[in-house]
Amino acid sequence: PILPNIEVVTRKNVCTHCSVGCTVIAEVQNGVWVGQEPGWESPINQGTHCAKGASVRELTKGTRRVKYPLKLVDGAWQRISWDQAIEEIGNQLLEIRQASGPDAVFWLGSAKFSNEGAYLYRKLAAFWGTNNVDHQARICHSTTVAGVANTWGYGAMTNSYNDIQNSKALLIVGGNPAEAHPVSMQHMLRGKEHNRAPFIVIDPRFTRTAAHATDYVRIRPGTDIPIAWGLLWHIFENGWEDKEYIRQRVYGMDEIRAEVKKWTPEEVERVTGVPGSQLRRVAEVLAKNKPSTVIWCMGVTQHTVGTANVRALSILQLALGNIGVAGGGANIYRGHCNVQGATDFGLDVSTLPAYYGLAEGAWKHFARVWDVGYDDLRGRFGSKDLMEAKGIPTTRWFDAVLAKPGDIDQPSPLRAMMCFGHGGNTVTRMPEMVKGLEKLSLLVVADPHPTTFAAIKERRNGTYILPACTQFETDGSRTCSNRSMQWGEKVVEPIFESKDDYTIMYLLARKLGFADEMFKHITVENTRPVPEDILREMNRGCLSIGATGQSPERLKMHMKHQADFDKITMRASSGPCAGDYYGLPWPSWGHPEIRHPGSAVLYDTSKHVMDGGGVFRARFGVERNGVSLLADGSYSKGSEIEDGYPEFTMAVLRKLGWDKDLTPEEMRVIQAIGGGEGSAEIDNVSWQTDLSMGIIRVALKHGCVPHGNAKARAVAWNLPDPVPIHREPIYSPRPELVKAYPAIEDRRDFR
Ligand code: SF4
């Protein structure tokens, strides 16, 4: 201790610099953060931090913090008080609302929010009356959510970082964990050393992770799908697939098999540059060393066909029978510390918290949870149509600033941007947005640090920076990539004049006139909403992902007494045991009598499907004349596939003339959730990531045949039982891309 006579208090929080979720033990003396240890008993970081994690203490210090509210006046920053800032920002927002409606404001959140912050921000946008609320997952892993949710059910990593030690073979695609997620690398290397697990890396670049590979596969950028199909070609050709698993649990694999047949080793080599002999070796290793896991990161997701890339790898794991087993699954590495939680709790233009979608049933559900009238909520949007229409995503908001009325699918161009949550430094990652920022009449940035966002030199007025706390100056939970919610304790008091996100949102809601309704069941202590109460409300409302058992009391208990719980409840018992957790991984069901320990592995393949065991779809969708409507709202024609959302689904339905056969309710569901992404409440039943019933019904009426899970749903809804038939292949790269690949002879120096 620096001061020998003063007690050192330890507080636990979570590292904020990546999604591994390493525990930080902060040592505080006399209110000052004097020392830091990694979480020794955490089964995830096991007493280690990487250099990034070792530096988190600096976030609460330093001269770079925003110290007090600032306002830009004629190009110069002026110090102002919190009262003045909230008053002026609130007045300008109200003026904009009066002149242009609530959709003229974009609420950009962040994956650096706590779960409670993300949920509250979504709720704030709802009370303001817009679905223009999003965060950076839009440009990183939203394709993962769509791809895996439509294959397996939930849009999340299936296993856990430390479960990788149970793998008998590792396949890493489009990721460099040795540098981006360093602590997770120890679990991989343990798997490699203890299990002698082959360590295969597929990447166009030779990275530090690739340096550890037992087999490094260098591919041409953008050829992820042919590589997956090439692996499956060898697997099917040699009979290495898990036939019993497929027979019991997987819809649509025959169609994949037919598609894969075309991807001969010669064709795959021509397209990807990978020799057939190497691909055969990798396929054999994965098939004969089971369970094998696939790990991917943004090298897979950040493509125009990102969802299809994700689907291809997901289908590979289904063919090998690796989903729903310890040591198998898909370990999908997110970026920021709370990308999973921010997505789970509603920072998305097309969903309410817990992927409830925007259909009437979903709004009614949250109106009940929030204890407000559904009509009251609807009135805030102006109309039912606006309430159920998807907002403008992060990738398009600046178009909406520059648009004229009528150019875009919302009533007016954007006029204001609210940027909260430490990390919405969107200018750095999307420089083209500057043009939009220049035109906004109001820009508000709430952040611990002055970001490039607020420093647009072309703006001379109408910009405010509010000093927000870091996560170490407040408390709340976060969900790391492995779905585990961990409670982070406040380490030090907010420094300078900073306030936490909860307080800033409360002050703003109070100025905007809806704080009483919005915080009806959340205790507010001296303008600070209590985060435990926010989480309790989330527990009540977020049924669809099983976030009901992660009460603040349980999360705190787990963080405090990890060592005791290790042998008892921390070893998650739903499904096969796959490593220990810090916190509680969802689904974790809550009930006074049930203390669900969380789900270490998503999907249980130890049970028969009739008893709740996992059942998956290699493919599902409906099609006619070669046009496929896929579960994620994509459509394909021939070998072409478009990633898409509700607008694609609607466009294809119109093209086929099927939209006329939809009931208004079905139309609303499709407009809200597309072909199947997200959730909807139909007849008081919440359907998550199901192909919408309307599409199945009209498809059957028009003589088409639903595939995969659509078939199961058709049966469940008492629609005529469809019969699977062979269809046009899907999930091939676009023909123009294939043509664009140079022939193998032309790029001998590629490797
Ligand atoms: Fe932090 Fe990630 Fe490093 Fe762990 S691996 S210490 S969570 S940056």
UniProtKB/TrEMBL annotation:
Signal found in the keyword field: yes
Single GO MF descriptor: oxidoreductase activity
Compartments in which it is found: Cell envelope
Protein keywords: 4Fe-4S, Iron, Iron-sulfur, Metal-binding, Molybdenum, Oxidoreductase, Plasmid, Signal
E.C. designation(s): 1.2.1.2
Alphabetical GO biological process terms: anaerobic respiration
Cofactors required: [4Fe-4S] cluster; Mo-bis(molybdopterin guanine dinucleotide)
Stretches of the chain forming a coiled coil according to its record: none
Segments passing through the bilayer: none
One cellular component (GO) term of this entry: cell envelope
Domain 4Fe-4S Mo/W bis-MGD-type, first and last residues per copy: 8-64
Broadest EC class assigned to this enzyme: oxidoreductase
Family designation: Belongs to the prokaryotic molybdopterin-containing oxidoreductase family.
Designated name of the protein: Formate dehydrogenase, alpha subunit
Organism: Azospirillum lipoferum (strain 4B)
Gene designation per UniProt: fdhA2
